[in-house]
Amino acid sequence: MTDLVLAIRHDWTLEQIKALFAKPFNDLLFQAQTTHRQYFNPNAVQISSLLSIKTGACPEDCSYCPQSARYDTGLERERLMSVDKVKQAALNAKSNGASRFCMGAAWRNPTDKNLDRVIEMISVVKDLGMETCVTLGMLTRPQSKKLKAAGLDYYNHNLDTSPEYYKEIITTRTYQDRLDTLENVRVEGINVCSGGIIGMGETDLDRAALLQQLANLPEHPQSVPINLLVQVENTPLYGTEPLDPIEFARTIAVARIIMPKSTVRLSAGRNDMSEEMQALCFLAGANSIFYGDKLLTTPNPDENEDLALFEKLGINASGKLRQDSSETAAA
Q1: CA atoms within 13 A of residue 59's CA, in its CB half-sphere
Q2: DSSP string of 122-133?
Q3: Residues 65, 100, 250, 256: which is the catalytic one?
Q4: What is the pLDDT at residue 247?
Q5: What pTM was computed for the model?
Q6: Which one from 100, 133, 186, 250 is the annotated catalytic residue?
Q7: CB 268 within 8 A of CB 295
Q8: Which of 173, 193, 207, 270 is catalytic?
Q9: Residue 257 in contact with residue 284, Cβ under 8 Å?
Q10: Per-residue model confidence (pLDDT) at position 324
Q11: For residues 46 and 286, what is the distance between their CA atoms, to the nearest angstrom?
Q12: Among 62, 117, 207, 281, the one annotated catalytic
């Protein structure tokens, strides 16, 4: 199996991915760490900051999401944020060490008018010297083209789970809708940020199938966020049996092996992770985090906690992420 993972592949079978998940844990982590070191500095982590620029009242029924208008989670609805407030938030994020600023809006899909306002925000953030990422729901090809022309660096649109389990989580948009948005973004030359949420009651097979979908896209997502479900009261997934931390680390490791050049982000759910669990995920190949005390509307460790953990682990949050030889190794 080892010789199969040295090259960049887009033809992974479910059986091959299941075989990786079934490896003895030490062997899996060794393979993931070996793969990681081929392309990345093993002691560097990229930091992103995430801001909710439009909160609540989303018409979708995603079972995990407190921003859905269908669930009474006590979330205060907010209109689209002003450009000045976004600029100040980006300045704060940059001063705290973030190199990428991500903006999320609770929409099914943006109107062209709203998209123009987001493009203003993108321009302001880029002027600060930061990478930009937005997550706005579904996009058309012309909208993707406008975002590319505006200089957007990354577009986030998660697949969430496997095609088979998806209907248990969301009914208001299809899996193909999500794939179509990823295609629209990719064709226009915007970096794709796409991953999933783990711990929603899915099976081992569902986790393998999610990663298969991501790895067999025409181009691997440049960023792959792996989220641990944050349970919010009055959402349908509240009370779901928590996922075993070792299984979460396995998912990180398999993602690293089958998408070796992608940045794998340890994303939502870190507030519920011990330092030891996070350290295990970094060992498994995670090399990006969201920084700050909130991810859209759910809690996140504050910056001081992250800096203290990085110091313990010898991780450099401002160092060079990729190995100098990565491009030649991938050729």
Answers
A1: 8
A2: HHHHHHTT-EEE
A3: 65
A4: 95
A5: 0.86
A6: 133
A7: yes
A8: 193
A9: no
A10: 56
A11: 10
A12: 62
**Token code pair at residue 218:** 């025409």
* 193 classed as catalytic: yes
The answer to which of 92-106, 164-178, 204-218, 219-233 has the lowest mean pLDDT is 92-106
**Looking at 142-247, which runs of residues are DSSP E strands?**
154-156, 191-193, 196-198, 223-228
Q: How many residues does the chain have?
A: 331
**In 125-149, which positions are buried (b, 16+ CB within 10 angstroms) versus exposed (e)?**
bbeeebbbbbbbbbbeeebbbbbbe
- The residue whose two tokens read 């450009």 is 83
* Token digits of residue 65: 């999401």
Produce one character per residue of 289-327: b if its CB has 16 or more CB atoms within 10 Å, e if not. Answer: bbbbeebbbbebbebeebeebbeeeebebeeebebeebe
Q: Which of 125, 135, 50, 37 is nearest to 83 (CA)?
A: 125
| Whether 281 is catalytic | no
Q: Residues 163, 169, 174, CA angle at the centre, nearest 5°?
A: 50
Span 221-227, mean pLDDT?
95
- List all residues 6 or more positions away from 165 whose beta carbon is below 8 Å from its beta carbon: 200, 202, 203, 206, 209
Amino acid code (one letter) for 139: L
Q: Which phi and psi (to 5°) does residue 197 adopt?
A: -115, 130
Catalytic site includes residue 65 = yes
The CA distance from 322 to 4, in Å, is 22
